[in-house]
Specification:
This protein is an alpha/beta fold and about 400 residues long. It is about 25% helix and about 25% strand. The protein folds into two domains: about 180 residues, FAD/NAD(P)-binding domain; about 150 residues, FAD/NAD(P)-binding domain, CATH 3.50.50.60. The radius of gyration is 21 Å and the shape is globular.
Length: about 400
């Protein structure tokens, strides 16, 4: 390998750190650069449990510098422009980075402002969200102080990080209301811009049973467009006919709209929807062959989860090594993803599936059944698996 080779990785989250750790082990004499402005690195799957009072939020965060693999250069800046025609990345400072291989994995952009009134209301007056470290403790504050009334939980009509997360906190809240003896005073509503509770029929059937048992009212194809915080009202657009519905609430957990980062959607790497265009199996860009993408920013037709990244990262690394060695990439990703669907403080449905929405289960039992053992897996095993395994290129 020539020492002039330079691999630039945009994003220092789950995908970027996992790939950089694997590449560092595989390559000698190659400069590997991770570009990310963040000072902190978050294990975001823990935020459902933080919002439910199981963990302190401090247990989900570490310094970014401690996550960067030894021997990998960290450029602590934002990307402003991508120029794949000249193999360059432009930073906000004006500096340009040249590359031989580019890996694009900056994650997803949370668009709080696309819900009118949400930016001003979040974190105040009963409005909370598990989708931000700064607000996740407000979720637990709202749940534990709830005395009765309407607890409203939303999901947008866009893709989101972990498609099951918006409903999981509703299940946890309902369980807490039961434990405090106030459930009969509570109306729990899950209002979603999606067409159903879950895309995979096997797990959807199990979740529908959970919803019926918990007496949660579900509203589908109802997209949150406005919050009137002073009146404690949420305004939804019916995606079937465009009509609007007002739902009063006493607390509301909002899963905000999400989309590709702006610098991605405005770049030559983007598809028509703004995501990084890649072959869904090789994770290689169809036009710029020295560009690969994985994680939330890629246009892969599967759920955007850390579990998906765990399977994508080895494929990207193998195909980069093939590319650098002058061979055609042959490693293939089958769309595997996983969503640990917490349904209470002692139960979890572990959904695992592929591009075809077929279950691809790890354990020798029916994972659509709620199990305490799977809850313990999420609570105790997966965080260690993440920090000590994935981020170090071991798993």
């Amino acid at each position: 390998m020539s020492r002039k080779e330079k691999i630039v990785i945009i994003g220092g989250g789950t995908a970027g750190i996992s790939v950089s750790a694997r590449l560092r082990k595989a390559l000698y004499g190659t400069e590997i650069v991770v570009v990310d402005p963040a000072e902190k690195h978050y294990y975001q799957p823990l935020w459902t449990l933080v919002g439910a009072g199981v963990f302190e939020r401090s247990e989900s965060v570490r310094d970014e510098r401690d996550c960067i693999p030894e021997g990998v250069t960290w450029v602590k800046e934002r990307v402003s422009k991508l120029s794949p025609e000249t193999n360059e990345v432009e930073l906000e400072s004006g500096k340009r980075l040249e590359y031989s291989i580019l890996v694009v994995c900056p994650g997803i952009q949370i668009n709080w402002s696309k819900v009118t009134g949400l930016t001003e209301a979040i974190g105040t007056n009963g409005v909370c969200s598990n989708y931000d470290y700064n607000y996740v403790e407000k979720t637990w504050e709202n749940i534990r102080n709830f005395k009765g009334g309407t607890a409203l939980f939303t999901q947008p009509n866009t893709v989101v990080k972990c498609g099951g997360a918006p409903q999981k906190i509703a299940y946890m809240a309902e369980d807490y209301f039961q434990s405090k003896g106030i459930r009969d005073k509570c109306k729990v509503i899950f209002a979603s811009g999606q067409a159903n509770i879950f895309a995979v029929p096997k797990y959807a059937a199990a979740l529908e049973e959970v919803i019926e048992r918990k007496r949660i009212e579900t509203l589908f194809k109802q997209n949150l467009i406005e919050i009137r915080a002073s009146q404690k009202e949420a305004i939804f657009e019916d995606l079937n006919d465009g009509s609007r519905k007002t739902i009063p609430y006493d607390m509301i957990h909002v899963s905000p709209p999400m989309g590709p980062p702006d610098f991605i959607s405005s770049s030559p790497l983007a598809d028509a929807a703004g995501w990084v265009d890649v072959n869904k199996h090789s994770l290689q860009h169809p036009r710029f062959k020295n560009v690969f993408s994985l994680g939330d920013a890629a246009n892969l037709p599967t759920s955007k989860t850390g579990a998906a990244i765990r399977k994508q990262a080895p494929v990207v690394v193998a195909n980069i090594l093939a590319q650098l060695g002058g061979s055609e990439p042959t490693a293939s990703y089958d769309g595997y993803t996983s969503c640990p669907l917490v349904t209470g403080y002692r139960s979890l449905i572990l959904a695992e599936f592929d591009y075809a929405l077929q279950p691809q289960e790890t354990f020798p039992f029916d994972q659509s059944q709620e199990r305490y053992s799977m809850y313990l897996l999420k609570k105790y095993v997966l965080p260690t698996f993440y920090w000590e395994g994935m981020l170090k290129g071991r798993l």
